[in-house]
């Protein structure tokens, strides 16, 4: 009977740890996507300004 609580406690810790890791991975991926979006927008802006100066 007494072996159940520690086991459940361990399970909860493992679950929280997994969720936290997942959150970290998501944040890293989002920051990478954001950076690539900024770069893409910057490239488009530079291309647009080049075309306008060419005219």
TrEMBL record:
It comes from the Bacteria. This is Uncharacterized protein. It comes from Porphyromonas gingivalis F0570.
């Amino acid at each position: 009977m007494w072996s159940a609580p520690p086991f459940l406690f361990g399970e909860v810790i493992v679950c929280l740890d997994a969720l936290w890791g997942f959150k970290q991975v998501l944040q890293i991926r989002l920051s990478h996507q954001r950076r690539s979006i900024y770069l893409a927008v910057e490239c488009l802006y530079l291309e647009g300004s080049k075309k306008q100066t060419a005219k």
